[in-house]
Write a structure and sequence with these properties.
By secondary structure, this protein is α+β, with helices and mostly antiparallel strands. The protein has nine helices and 21 strands. Strands 6-7-8-3-9-10 form a six-stranded mixed beta sheet, with helices on both faces. The radius of gyration is 25 Å and the shape is globular.
Length: 377
């Protein structure tokens, strides 16, 4: 296993019109030995370019990559002691599964008998030991992906890279493969960097999540932290489904005031001081849909609205509400037993500790939770 460090890593592409496109913008990050880190972000944010530079398949414009403190920026992919699984499984269709897995050791000086033993061991680990004599076209998508994982892991790499390996699988198979990947990492605790656009994969698989946008790291933290303690509005809005509800707010007479809210949100003096220190302009108040609680006490309610549409998800129902006196729509998660009619009115409140406050101009978090003046994690 290796500790992976990226220092001021940048990749700039030259465009045909003479311009430039910055795909990765001065990234500095450390991925600890044995850590399973997922890189997530919108399409075009630089995820795959970042991974390919670590793999040695893309040359950085500037910056340095280190494995265990040793620079590897100028070392070929074969010399970096890593393995990679791509979105396209890329098995040889005319070779058996056994031969495909053996290919992972093609450039290693390993005796023939040991190769056979390691192939059978890896096939058993990923549950395809009975398929070794079949060819990829005879396998299901999940079986092919297991074969690709075995081919990569048989090298016993220091660093294991995966570029959206589950994106072509159906929803049920994705769920099964996520579990298997988690189990594989427990068996082979390699330093793993996993790129995906699917935040559910990022949240369920990882020890740590890197959220990228426009080639820059927005936050690196454990999954629970990027959800409960986002460092900026981008992370708050990108992580979580349905997305967080955001309200324009101002600090007035010791309370947060927003046109969309039925009443002001009183806050402690210590937090008022922090707000004045951190925010020069307006504020944004964020409340996640599942942190809103239904109430029938009008004096307690912060939000009131009528149902526009609703979505039954099985374990919850998502209400799309038009707020009272506005054309503003928010989303609220309620129990699946709630089956409303269009136009039904609901009132909601929220716990101060579940709300998030951001500087409207910079997007930076001022506090996660309004009950105490705590900075973002």
């Amino acid at each position: 296993m290796a500790r992976v460090e990226c220092v001021d890593l940048q990749r700039v592409f030259s465009l045909r019109d003479g311009g430039e496109e910055v795909a990765v913008d001065s990234i500095s990050v450390t991925i600890e030995e044995g850590e399973f880190t997922t890189v997530v972000g919108p399409s075009g944010c630089g995820k795959t370019t970042f991974l390919r530079m670590i793999a040695g398949l893309e040359t950085p414009t500037s910056g340095e990559i280190r494995f265990d403190g040793e620079p590897v920026t100028d070392i070929s992919p074969q010399g970096r002691e890593l393995s990679m699984v791509f979105q396209s499984i890329a098995l040889f269709p005319f070779r058996t599964v056994r031969s495909n897995i053996e290919y992972g050791l093609k450039y290693a000086d390993v005796p023939t008998q040991e190769v056979r033993e390691r192939v059978e061991e890896m096939a058993s680990m990923v549950g395809i030991e009975e398929l070794l004599d079949k060819k990829p076209p005879q396998l299901s998508g999940g079986q092919q992906q297991r074969a690709a994982l075995a081919r990569a892991l048989i090298r016993d790499p220091e660093v294991f890279l995966l570029d959206e390996p589950l994106s072509d699988l159906d929803a049920k198979l994705k769920t099964e493969m996520r579990t298997e990947l988690k189990e594989l990492h427990q068996q082979f605790p390699k330093t793993t960097i996993y790129v995906t656009h699917d935040q559910q994969e990022a949240m369920t698989l990882s020890d740590s999540v890197i959220v990228l946008n426009d080639g820059r790291i927005m936050q690196k933290a454990p999954p629970e932290k990027v959800y409960s303690a986002p460092e900026n509005t981008f992370v708050a809005q990108f992580i979580g489904s349905p997305t967080i509800n955001m309200f324009e707010a101002t600090l007035e007479s010791g309370a947060l005031v927003a046109d969309a809210l039925q009443r002001a949100v009183p806050i402690a003096e210590e937090l008022q001081a922090r707000i004045r220190e951190k925010a020069d302009g307006g504020l944004q108040l964020g409340v996640r849909p599942n942190d809103l609680t239904r109430t029938e006490d009008g004096a307690e309610a912060f939000l009131e609205g009528s149902v526009k549409v609703f979505e039954q998800m099985g374990d919850e129902t998502i209400l799309h509400l038009i707020l009272e006196g506005t054309d503003r729509e928010i989303r609220v998660s309620v129990p699946p037993s709630v089956i409303p009619e269009q136009g039904d009115r609901f009132q909601f409140t929220f716990d101060h500790g579940d709300a998030h406050l951001f500087d409207r101009e910079t997007g930076e978090a001022i506090t996660n939770g309004l009950d105490t003046p705590k900075p973002p994690a």
